[in-house]
């Protein structure tokens, strides 16, 4: 069995705040469906009872949007959803490596190695937003109720249902996206993460997006990094970005900063 060395040269951190531009519904466990006729509840921190955005929800949406942008086949079923996975190393390595499988990872049971580049943290409701929602005396703690009616297209019978969602204007964060640098090509792959954030902004997060839910905006974006040469020290990019668009426009400068200063990869011997 041949050995393969994996060297971590450093990590890049994108810190961001997430603003709910419209009501946001990310579903919970369904354990409290009996309260007040509530059909779909939101996910909450079990300690604080505040709603939050799971990192898995944001990461999954980023991945699915990139799969669609690149026209990749969604060929692997996980639970109730399908994702794209390169089935062989040859398929994975075509055109320099699949950006989705490289950045977001592949199942461990496949016969080729690929260290996942991207980690996405949970985003907690900010203290300021929690105070505002408490003062507003929303229908439920930190949440509003929205009643919708499903119409049977044959009989015209109406079936109402009540959705719980976080009101527009709520902010979550700051949260982190952590991107690992294992090889020189990863500098360019960081752009995949930025593109995926823009795709989420232009689509929606959570459920019922086609009915207007889940429009979000990423703001207050900061970049910092840690290098293997002095991993305990953070190096901060000088500029803070008001939007993903601004971050994307500065990518060439960020990439140069990473290559030359923040996370340099030593030349091969």
Low-confidence stretches: 31-36
Tally of alpha and pi helices: 7
Q: What share of residues is helical? A: 25-40%
- For the termini, the CA-CA separation is 25 Å
What is the ordering of alpha helices and beta strands?
Answer: EEHEEHHEEHEEEHEEHH
Commentary on this structure:
- This protein has 269 residues and is α+β, with helices and mostly antiparallel strands.
- It has one domain.
- The chain contains seven helices and eleven strands.
- The strands form four sheets. Strands 5-9-1-10-11 form a five-stranded antiparallel beta sheet. It has a two-stranded antiparallel ribbon with strand order 2-6.
- A hairpin with a 7-residue loop joins strand 10 and strand 11.
For the structure shown, list the relevant keywords.
alpha+beta, 269 residues, 11 strands, 7 helices, two-stranded antiparallel sheet
């Amino acid at each position: 069995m041949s050995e393969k060395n994996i060297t971590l040269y450093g990590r890049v951190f994108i810190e961001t705040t997430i603003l709910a531009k419209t009501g946001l519904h990310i579903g919970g466990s369904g354990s409290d469906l009996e309260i007040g006729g509530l059909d779909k509840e939101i996910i909450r921190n079990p300690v604080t009872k505040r709603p939050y955005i799971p990192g898995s929800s944001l990461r999954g949406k980023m991945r699915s949007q990139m799969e669609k942008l690149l026209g990749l086949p969604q060929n692997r079923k996980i639970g109730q959803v399908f994702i794209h996975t390169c089935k062989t190393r040859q398929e994975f390595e075509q055109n320099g490596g699949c950006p989705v499988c490289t950045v977001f990872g592949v199942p461990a049971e496949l016969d080729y190695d690929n260290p996942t580049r991207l980690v996405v943290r949970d985003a907690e409701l900010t203290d300021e937003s929690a105070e505002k929602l408490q003062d507003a005396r929303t229908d439920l703690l930190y949440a509003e109720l929205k009643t919708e009616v499903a119409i049977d297209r044959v009989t015209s019978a109406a079936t109402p249902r009540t959705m719980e969602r976080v009101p527009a204007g709520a902010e979550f964060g700051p949260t982190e996206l952590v991107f690992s640098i294992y090889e020189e090509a990863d500098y360019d792959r960081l752009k995949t993460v930025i593109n995926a954030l823009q795709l989420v902004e232009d689509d929606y997060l959570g459920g019922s997006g086609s009915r207007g839910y889940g429009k979000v905006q990423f703001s207050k974006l900061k970049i910092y990094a840690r290098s293997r040469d002095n991993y305990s020290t953070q190096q901060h990019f000088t500029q803070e970005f008001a939007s993903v668009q601004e971050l994307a426009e500065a990518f060439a400068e960020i990439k140069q900063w990473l290559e030359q200063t923040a996370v340099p990869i030593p030349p091969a011997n």
